[in-house]
Write a structure and sequence with these properties.
Elements: E1 6-10, H1 14-27, E2 31-36, H2 46-55, E3 65-70, H3 77-91, E4 94-99, E5 102-104, H4 108-118, E6 125-129, E7 144-147, E8 155-158, H5 159-162, H6 175-185, H7 188-202, H8 210-219, E9 223-227, E10 232-234, H9 272-302
Parallel strand pairs: 1-2, 1-4, 2-3, 6-9
Antiparallel strand pairs: 4-8, 5-10, 6-8, 7-9
Helix pairs in contact: 1-2, 6-7
Length: 304
């Protein structure tokens, strides 16, 4: 029987919300914490979509305490999710967290719960990720590994780790902090990639919350646990998405399952080979995103 609370972050997509909720319903968590942003004032039809997404929560039909944190107004992707997760960890010490487009495999919840229990007091570990961007990684010899590239499409963590989160990443201006992150990554190309992103986040150029979480983990040399087989598929890429409207190599990654009981790692060390492979995959995906933005801008100019 599952004992870990689940946090569910929703907005305006009742179709994907229903699919992700179905997976949560199968897991039957004892506590469900639901965070929702409000409709944008310049989109008349969005209020109805937000209401439809929230109505799905009424289908909880198992023994479960439901807590809600709903906004009447639109706060925005970055601040709504970050403030919502702040609220989650004010309520509970640890949680499994799913957004409304992150579809979980049948034993994602079991994996997270076991890892939360195994590493609860180990400050070196800051996150459990359900996403393996490569699909599988050394799955013939291990159940999971450690990474600096843990994905936030289905993840779990503890209040003790989230306390380092800062939405404005105020520490980014400190050159010693930058040097520390460079040392943690131990790779010039990877650092330059992150440096550009963190600079944009610090200057308010990106409406997001997850790069700040990556910053917090790198700052603490915090590791993420990644399953040897992918347990989350992002089904939200498309025209209805806030950010991911473009074609992507990391969308709809095939769902897999792990064999239980898990093989517990005998030592804790980052798998830099995995991180390097993921880095190149994400760089390729970012280039696809940038090309899509340029194409969208070109079409906008043509019709203006």
């Amino acid at each position: 029987m599952m004992k870990t609370p689940v946090a569910f972050l929703i907005f305006n997509r009742p179709d994907t919300t229903a699919k992700v909720f179905a997976a949560i319903r199968q897991a039957k968590p004892p506590k469900l914490l639901v965070v929702a942003d409000g409709p944008r004032s310049d989109r008349p039809s969005e209020a109805e979509k937000c209401a439809a997404a929230r109505a799905i929560i009424d289908f909880v039909d198992w023994e479960c305490e439901v807590l809600t944190n709903y906004s009447d107004i639109n706060i925005g992707c970055g601040k709504r999710i970050s403030s919502g997760i702040n609220w989650v960890f004010e309520q509970v010490e640890e949680a499994i967290i799913l957004e409304d487009d992150c579809l979980a495999s049948s034993n994602f919840f079991q994996f997270c719960e076991l890892m939360l229990n195994q590493y609860r007091h180990d400050e070196r570990i800051m996150m459990i990720s359900g996403t393996n961007f490569l699909g599988t990684w050394k799955s013939n010899i291990q159940s999971y590994h450690f990474s600096y590239y843990g994905g936030i499409w289905g993840w779990a963590s503890w209040r003790r780790a989230w306390r380092y989160y800062n939405y404005e990443i105020k520490l980014w201006t400190d050159n010693e902090i930058k040097a520390r992150i460079h040392d943690v990554l131990a790779n010039k190309k990877q650092y330059i990639y992150r440096e550009k992103i963190f600079e944009q986040v610090y200057n308010g150029m990106i409406d997001t919350w997850d790069y700040q979480w990556s910053f917090a983990r790198l700052l603490q040399s915090g590791l993420s646990i990644v399953p040897s087989a992918n347990l989350i598929s992002n089904i939200g890429f498309g025209n209805d998405a806030t950010h991911t409207k473009y074609k992507s190599e990391v969308s709809n990654i095939e769902l897999k399952n792990l064999d239980f009981p898990l093989d517990i790692n005998k030592f804790i060390a980052v798998d830099r080979d995995y991180d390097q492979e993921v880095f190149y995959k994400l760089i390729k995906n970012k280039n696809l995103f940038q090309r899509a933005i340029k194409k969208l801008s070109s079409l906008t100019m043509q019709h203006s």
